[in-house]
Amino acid sequence: MSWSWKLARVAGIPIYVHWTFLILIAWLVIAGTLENNNVSQGISEAAFVLALFGCVVLHELGHALTARRFGVKTSDITLLPIGGVARLERMPEKPSQELLVALAGPAVNVVIVALLLIFDVPLPAGVGASQELVHAGFWPKLLMVNVFLAAFNLLPAFPMDGGRVLRALLAMRLPYARATRLAANIGQMMAIGFGLLGLSGQAPILLFIAIFVWIGAEAEAQQVAERAALKGVSIRDAMITEFHTLDADDTLGRAADLLLAGTQQDFPIAVDGDPVLHVLTRADLMSGLSQRGRDGLARDFAPSALPTVESSGSLSESLTLLRSRNTPCLQVVDRGQVVGLLTLENVGELLMVRAALGEPQDGSVEGGETIY
Ligand SMILES: [Zn+2]
């Protein structure tokens, strides 16, 4: 993840912290100090948040180390202000294994609660009244927060762990993509319930949770449906092979003519001294035309190189790359030669064709997984 600093490496897994998280800590120190005219108050509030995030790291390690037992590597764990994210290279294939991986995170919080209770940490007085909780001591507060983490993560809705638990249970009986769709719908029903409660003014935060759950559920269902649909499809099947490439000395006028003559919007362009193709997007072309007219050189307005994928690579990973780089297309190479372009639009068309032909679209999925 970009804008993250590596904090440590635990059991071979790098742990990153996102810069927004550091701002949160700094803000807590400053706000706590100003509010109470007392630096130690600010520092103790920040220390509590650090302890809380320590618990979050342990929760993520619970997922990651359980996944490792099933032979699945974790590429990293990142701390964000909203929580932690572990990026698993994939989910284990068997639903029973995904079930254990999902349960392992909340189980860590349950263990922390049990340990705190064993060490005689009292429950904060007036549990549930948030005012009381804010003024409770360090350890009682940590206890309550772990109870909350375990309970919240077990809500049976994506993107929470409980959503995965539900999906895994359903997937023992149903195909994976259908189990995911069903689990996502159940999560969205819950989101509507949260939303209504939030709107009724009981707890406005429920409204944010509702939105978070709704979006998370939809994203998971779509991602799984897409991966299931693309299973067994190679980059070669999905790429465009008929496209125009501009030469290094082509003018903007020629690019404009090609744009008008066909449906291609973004043109790969060979740039002197760079072995990979650059791209002239339609927006670049328009800004070039307004600045230099038809005689301007296209290459002057194609600053960025097109990301490259090998034709033998994984299609789902290429789609992730395509989305994360915010680029219109990828160039597909085979032994150093550009053989095609990959665009989201074309992959969408391929999915439509496959759906229309009724080709099988189910089975387990492959590709990276994020777990909270
Ligand atoms: Zn989790």
From TrEMBL:
<protein>
    <recommendedName>
        <fullName>Zinc metalloprotease</fullName>
    </recommendedName>
</protein>
<keyword id="KW-0645">Protease</keyword>
<keyword id="KW-0812">Transmembrane</keyword>
<feature type="binding site">
    <location>
        <position position="59"/>
    </location>
    <ligand>
        <name>Zn(2+)</name>
    </ligand>
</feature>
<keyword id="KW-0378">Hydrolase</keyword>
<keyword id="KW-1133">Transmembrane helix</keyword>
<keyword id="KW-1003">Cell membrane</keyword>
<feature type="transmembrane region" description="Helical">
    <location>
        <begin position="139"/>
        <end position="158"/>
    </location>
</feature>
<feature type="transmembrane region" description="Helical">
    <location>
        <begin position="99"/>
        <end position="119"/>
    </location>
</feature>
<dbReference type="InterPro" id="IPR000644">
    <property type="entry name" value="CBS_dom"/>
</dbReference>
<keyword id="KW-0862">Zinc</keyword>
<feature type="transmembrane region" description="Helical">
    <location>
        <begin position="7"/>
        <end position="30"/>
    </location>
</feature>
<keyword id="KW-0677">Repeat</keyword>
<feature type="transmembrane region" description="Helical">
    <location>
        <begin position="42"/>
        <end position="61"/>
    </location>
</feature>
<dbReference type="InterPro" id="IPR008915">
    <property type="entry name" value="Peptidase_M50"/>
</dbReference>
<keyword id="KW-0472">Membrane</keyword>
<feature type="active site">
    <location>
        <position position="60"/>
    </location>
</feature>
<keyword id="KW-0129">CBS domain</keyword>
<dbReference type="Pfam" id="PF00571">
    <property type="entry name" value="CBS"/>
</dbReference>
<feature type="transmembrane region" description="Helical">
    <location>
        <begin position="203"/>
        <end position="221"/>
    </location>
</feature>
<dbReference type="GO" id="GO:0046872">
    <property type="term" value="F:metal ion binding"/>
</dbReference>
<dbReference type="InterPro" id="IPR046342">
    <property type="entry name" value="CBS_dom_sf"/>
</dbReference>
<feature type="binding site">
    <location>
        <position position="161"/>
    </location>
    <ligand>
        <name>Zn(2+)</name>
    </ligand>
</feature>
<dbReference type="InterPro" id="IPR016483">
    <property type="entry name" value="UCP006404_Pept_M50_CBS"/>
</dbReference>
<feature type="binding site">
    <location>
        <position position="63"/>
    </location>
    <ligand>
        <name>Zn(2+)</name>
    </ligand>
</feature>
<keyword id="KW-0479">Metal-binding</keyword>
<dbReference type="GO" id="GO:0006508">
    <property type="term" value="P:proteolysis"/>
</dbReference>
<dbReference type="Pfam" id="PF02163">
    <property type="entry name" value="Peptidase_M50"/>
</dbReference>
<keyword id="KW-0482">Metalloprotease</keyword>
<dbReference type="GO" id="GO:0008237">
    <property type="term" value="F:metallopeptidase activity"/>
</dbReference>
<dbReference type="GO" id="GO:0005886">
    <property type="term" value="C:plasma membrane"/>
</dbReference>
<feature type="domain" description="CBS">
    <location>
        <begin position="301"/>
        <end position="359"/>
    </location>
</feature>
<comment type="similarity">
    <text>Belongs to the peptidase M50B family.</text>
</comment>
